[in-house]
Design a protein that fits this description.
The complex is a heterodimer of chains A (about 425) and B (about 90).
Chain A lengths: L3 E6 L5 E2 L14 E5 L1 H7 L2 H5 L29 E3 L1 H7 L3 E6 L10 H14 L4 E5 L3 H13 L2 E7 L4 H8 L4 E5 L3 H14 L3 E2 L5 H6 L2 H10 L7 E5 L4 H15 L9 E7 L4 H8 L24 H11 L3 E4 L1 H15 L5 H15 L8 E6 L24 H14 L1
Parallel strand pairs in A: 5-13, 6-7, 6-9, 7-8, 10-11, 10-13, 11-12
Antiparallel strand pairs in A: 1-2, 1-3, 4-5
Chain B lengths: L2 E4 L13 E4 L2 E2 H11 L3 H5 E2 L2 E2 L3 E5 L2 E2 L9 E2 L4 E6 L7
Parallel strand pairs in B: 1-9
Antiparallel strand pairs in B: 1-2, 3-8, 4-5, 6-7, 6-9
Classes of the chains: A alpha/beta (about 425), B alpha+beta (about 90).
């Protein structure tokens, strides 16, 4: 039994039935899922959640489905790693890494949102799912969709490197390579979505899809022993993830699972694409679109749809936002790998590097608990590190040759 | 000559299917209110309490009014105004 009341416009509050729609007909605002929190509060307890399988569906009452979960039955509940080495390195008391480099099945947090989107697509009786993407989302829709038996259409810019599309193609979706840039692909997809009765996960299914991001917030609270941390640092592209992490905490507070909530939410972006950070720093509500230029391609949305709401959450919680250069991103990826053995994609470098800046400038206090959200696996963006990693030691297949190198290495230390 | 105003598809029901209508010179908000006389209901869809709605973008000669003078941006004869609903997109 679901607990969804319907869809509601975030701007004007007009209500809509549960349908594959995403824009308010009246004021063009985005639609959001509205729940019956009274009935949810009666339906779940900490204990009940703890007894369920360790996947994102253990919070199903707070997800927008009516029936049983159907997709992503092994997704979510990733480790919350206590990062003592890294904490010491950057001079902070308690640091945790929410490690979404290991979400099943395609190693990014997109597996969460797509699990929810495709379950909803089944409930709406769609036989075809689609998305516009250059990476993580394409992988996740291709993989989850394959197992769930959907026809799949994945739209990408034709100029994308071949290496990046293999990780989608292996699941044999219909991969549509569009002769245009990412913005043009997106525009085309809006037209396609209007004409064909397909479930575009980030267009007409978006209100449901976006709710899947809340599971990161739910898990953080549960894994900290049913407590909310003092600070959470979240990477921003459209800004949706940041707003949903905060929504998760507020929902837990509302239904009584959290007794106290005093968490500050911080945003992280690349300097080459930082419209949300720019607005936060300038203290304005207006998000000025930019042309992205950064190695953090999974965050390169120049005109962020939820940018306004993300900046409001940052303001409301007393957080802040920071942006970092490509070099800082690379350094942070290497630091995370060196100290905690976690290989993050470029977006993870953005998050850690921004967190370091926020700590240095005192926006994040050194006392208290801090969680950084690492949302994707570094194996997917290896080219970003080309020429920036340590080099191998080449030797001949002889013990003498090895020991010569070993002497150099020991001397180097 | 007057101000050319481009109407997006979802609002063309209010303009009897016209993609382009004529607007008055003055500020953007006065232009919107003036259009409402001819096409009742239009101002309500585009603005609220004298402010342009957040998910409606208005361009004067291809520049977003948020980066001009917002609702008080002035338009003169020969200017082109476009009303474009922002459609939510993006991913993270």
């Amino acid at each position: 039994m679901g607990h969804v009341k319907g869809l509601k416009c975030r701007e004007c509050g007009r209500e809509y039935p549960v349908d594959p729609i995403y824009v308010c007909e009246f004021c063009f605002g985005p639609l959001e899922v509205a729940y019956d929190y009274k009935s949810i509060a009666k339906a779940i307890t900490r204990k009940k959640i703890e007894q369920r399988p360790q996947t994102l569906w253990r919070y199903r009452e707070l997800l927008p489905i009516d029936g049983e979960p159907q997709v992503g039955l092994d997704s979510g509940f990733t480790p919350l790693v206590k990062a003592d080495n890294l904490a010491q390195e950057i001079g902070i008391d308690e640091l945790f890494v929410k490690d979404d480099t290991v979400v099943h099945p395609t190693l990014s947090f997109k597996d969460r949102v797509v699990a929810v989107a495709l379950t909803k697509a089944k409930e709406f009786d769609f036989d075809t799912v689609a998305c516009a993407s250059t990476g993580n989302l394409a992988h996740s829709v291709s993989a989850h969709g394959a197992r769930a038996g959907f026809k799949r259409f994945i739209f990408i810019p034709a100029s994308l490197e071949a290496s990046k599309i293999v990780a989608s193609l292996v699941y044999e979706p219909n991969l549509i390579a569009v002769d245009g840039n990412y913005d043009e692909v997106n525009r085309l997809c809006s037209e396609v979505a209007n004409k064909y009765r397909w479930a575009f996960v980030n267009i007409n299914i978006r209100p449901f899809y976006a709710e899947g991001s809340k599971t990161i917030g739910f898990e953080i609270v549960e894994q900290m022993g049913w407590k909310a941390p003092d600070h959470i640092v979240v990477p921003c592209a459209s800004g949706s993830l940041l707003t949903k992490v905060w929504k998760a905490l507020k929902e837990f507070r509302q239904i009584g699972i959290l007794k106290e909530l005093d968490t500050k939410i911080f945003g992280a972006q690349a300097t080459g694409c930082g419209p949300i950070v720019t607005a936060v720093k300038a203290g304005t509500d207006i998000i000025r679109p930019v042309k992205p230029n950064t190695i953090a391609k999974s965050l390169a949305i120049g005109n962020p749809a939820d940018g306004f709401y993300a900046s409001q959450v940052i303001k409301e919680t007393g957080g802040y936002a920071e942006d970092v250069s490509d070099q800082e991103i690379i350094d942070a990826i290497k630091l995370l790998a060196r100290t905690e053995g976690i290989f993050a994609e470029t977006a993870g470098g953005v998050t850690l590097a921004s967190a370091i800046k926020l700590i240095k400038t005192g926006r994040i206090s050194r006392e208290g608990t801090t969680v950084i959200c690492i949302t994707g696996n570094g194996l997917k963006t290896q080219e970003a590190l080309q020429g920036h990693t340590a080099m191998p030691h080449h030797i001949k297949p002889s013990l003498a040759s090895f020991e010569e190198v070993l002497r150099q290495i020991t001397r180097g230390n | 000559m007057a101000v050319k105003v481009r109407i997006p598809t979802p609002l063309q029901r209010l303009t009897q299917g016209k993609e382009e209508v004529e607007g008055s010179v003055g500020t953007i908000i006065s232009l919107v209110n003036d259009l409402d006389q001819k096409y009742p209901g239009l101002a309500d869809r585009v603005s609220e309490n004298g402010k342009i709605r957040r998910f409606v973008n208005i361009y004067v000669n291809d520049e977003d009014i948020r980066f001009l003078n917002a609702e008080e941006t002035s338009v003169k004869d020969g200017d082109e105004v476009s009303i474009v609903p922002a459609i939510a997109g993006g991913a993270r």
